[in-house]
Amino acid sequence: MLLATLALAMLVPAVIDLAVGNPDWEVFAMASAFTLFVGVMLVLTNRVRFGSLTIRQAFLMTASAWVVLPAFAALPLHFADLQLSYTDAFFEAMSGITTTGSTVLVGLDFAPPGILLWRSLLQWLGGVGIIVMAVSILPMLQVGGMQLFRMEFAERVEKALPRAAQIGAWIAIIYLGLTLICAGLYRMADMPTFEAINHAMTTVATGGYSTHDRSVGVFESAWVDVVATVFMILGSLPFLLYLQALRAHPMALVTDSQVRWFFGFLGVAVAATVGYLHLGLERPFLDSIRVAAFNITSIMTGTGYATEDFGQWGAFAPPLFFLLMFIGGCAGSTTCGIKVFRFQVLYATARVQMKRLLQPNGVFIAYYNRKPIPDTVEASVMSFFFLFIMLFALIAIGLGMLGLDFITATSGAATAIANVGPGLGPVIGPAGNFATLPDAAKWLLSLAMLLGRLEIFTVLVLFAPGFWRQ
Among 12, 31, 134, 449, who pairs with 98 as Cys (CB 3.0-4.6 Å)? Predict the structure, then answer.
């Protein structure tokens, strides 16, 4: 069914290319037909009585879906007149569906409209897909502490909307509504209609694909930067809280501790950068606020837009942006990275441990959103942190073995596993892209994007021998 949906989505850029007389419409039409054939064939050959998914089936379905979809989504990119190898096409498609935003394409300013729209559609579909997965699948799989939201999900939403299909439909409506509002505001900021639609899809999805090599910086518009910053933040907040706010509790977003922590991280980083730009580099104060707010939000939320090369800001910027890559946004949003709630759980656990050291006989309990954190959640979050850091190190070492320099290897590993987009340095920084990397590096980075998007455990569990027993 997912492949059939992807096939129908391919018809949209096909129509656009046909309307402007670009021959790539035939590529999209043929790729759509082939994908639809495979999807429908699988649906028809697997029509059996089916109950609920087992845990093993849910793990396998989730991981395989996020591998198979980019494999088919890469077909138009490979066969279009872009001269992309299948490796490059798969990298671009995986980056799109996982809302990473890393790209191997150059000359976007002259690319056919169908290709530009297809990249934006991939990120938009991937964004809504990760929200639904975070709400319905990851809590059930107890991945990286996400079971914490199984209880909140039941308390906040299931009483009002008992069916998962209803909840998914409401989330899709909210997601579409935010996209349309964002596109309208971009258009009011004098962005051309086609580009406003593309950037709205990739902004709300916190994906970062642009229609220009210079990203959003090509517009040189303060209003465009403001709209992008606001909607990158909106895409980083839990969509279940939007649903709750619309239905019964309008203050849900304000009272949620994860949202407050997110704005705390963001506010401190922006304030520090504004101070550095204004006092250290002597840039105008208002310009410093605009540039810092946009680029800090873009990196922390994993969107990956850029208005300028922040690698030229001096020694302060690279380490700050490197650390921000790992944070991400809130659980249940379109963002990626480690997620804010895990930092909250670790902080609460560490605080309790400090109290136990001072008062060994005392009884102390870690809390999240004013509720006790189960021991299983604490263990799951700490396991996630360990695997995240270990895999980041292994991927960076692997990229170094393939000939990449230190900055490119480490920032490439970080930006891929955190699903951010641009890295640091002259090669893959905001002024460069991933086109010059060897094919082996692109496949390794594609794996890192998949691991980061599926919260690591969902993929690694497939390599456990016990998974395939029984």
Answer: 449
Q: Which residues are annotated as a binding site?
A: 99-100, 207, 303, 419-420
As annotated, the binding site for K(+) includes 99-100, 207, 303, 419-420
**The Cα angle at residue 429 between residues 425 and 433, in degrees rounded to 5:** 125
**Contact, 140 vs 54, CB < 8 A?**
no
* Tokens linked to 173: 């409506």
- Of the candidates 432, 431, 429, 435, the one whose C-alpha atom is nearest the C-alpha of residue 414 is 429
pLDDT of residue 343: 93
Q: How far apart are CA 392 and CA 397, in angstroms?
A: 9
Question: Is-contact 77 92, C-beta < 8 A?
Answer: yes
Is the CB of residue 227 less than 8 Å from the CB of residue 186?
yes
The total number of residues written for the chain in this structure:
470
Under 8 Å between Cβ of 217 and 306 = yes
Predicted confidence (pLDDT) per residue in 186-204, tens digit: 999 999 999 999 999 999 9
Instruction: Give residue-wise pLDDT tens across range 171-190.
Output: 889 999 999 999 999 999 99
